[in-house]
């Protein structure tokens, strides 16, 4: 019999690639999404398949799904910096009440629970790279805290359901991910640079441009998520890429790969509590699940630029 997964947040950027992977692996999938930041357009092609259905629903409300469920996957949460000030209360509620409602459903259905947590729970980290035992440095009053603390609360709730009710849980801490189906206006550096380069506008570089990030291509991330979901381990597992790049180098690379004539424009730092460095330690997932990302930045950015070319052509 086919396994069945409910994927909350399946109409979003990561959701699309994750659901595609589940369908290729022979799962039946129910996408649950309130379309807060995802779109129906994202999943139109997936819904053409017999094995994929869509339920428009806000997970802050209790959720009933008929029939058996083997896996409950929680990808639902606005995750872009622009959303943190636009819909802060919705983010906190999605992380808290939403995660609670999905855990109750997992308990009721005796389903495994895969949760998309984030590197943001490490805040502005004091150690590099960040391993899973590091408890983080989050400014609870800062503008990012709605997301960071929401995700920390969700992890605690998930561990509690595991301890108290024996729900099989799997937590993945996702580091910066990029690839096709990112939103052009999500305020993230990869989408900003790609859209600016393809539109011939200057690439805006905040601060001195020496702050670093490590970027994971979405297919690599989904490979990691899939392994974590099927594993017998709760984690948490970091998933990301260890290649670190400064924002200045990234801007130069996007200009080169897009063939753009755009220049780089320096601006003062927008958010002073933005982390200066962020890089995952991947030893745990490598040793436990044999996982390593395989897509280099040049390949991933080339595919991402192809996606944004379509987006720009449609605008
Ligand atoms: N993209 C990244 O780099 C990144 C990094 C770390 C963690 N994550 C996590 O991965 C998950 C997916 O992120 P993404 O980048 O695909 O973001 P996204 O905004 O593209 O997708 C999130 C999806 O969740 C849906 N959603 C939001 N609130 C909801 C609610 N209350 N009820 C039902 N659906 C709701 C949105 O409509 C959207 O389709 C999120 O949990 C995010 O926190 C992403």
Brief characterization of the structure:
The protein has 10 helices and 13 strands. The chain is α/β, with parallel strands linked by helices and 315 residues long.
Description:
- With about 325 residues, this protein is an alpha/beta fold.
- The protein has two domains: about 5-175 and about 215-240, 3-Layer(aba) Sandwich (Rossmann fold); about 180-215 and about 245-280 and about 295-310, UDP-galactose 4-epimerase, domain 1 (Alpha-Beta Complex).
- About 40% of the residues lie in helices and about 15% in strands.
- Helix 8 (about 245-260) crosses helix 10.
- The mean pLDDT is about 95.
- The chain binds nicotinamide-adenine-dinucleotide.
- The site of nicotinamide-adenine-dinucleotide has 28 residues, from helix 1, helix 4 and strand 5.
The named CATH superfamily of the largest domain? NAD(P)-binding Rossmann-like Domain
Rg (CA only): 19 Å
Quickly give the CATH architecture of the largest domain: 3-Layer(aba) Sandwich
Largest sheet: 7 strands, parallel
> The CATH topology of the largest domain, please?
Rossmann fold
Please, how many helices? 10
Q: Any idea of the CATH class of the largest domain? A: Alpha Beta
Give the CA-based shape.
globular
The proportion of residues forming helix, as a percent range, comes to 40-55%
Runs in which pLDDT lies below 50 for 5 or more consecutive residues are none
Could you state the order of secondary-structure elements as H and E?
EHEHEEHHEHEEHEEEHEEHEHH
Strand order of the largest sheet: 3-2-1-4-5-6-11
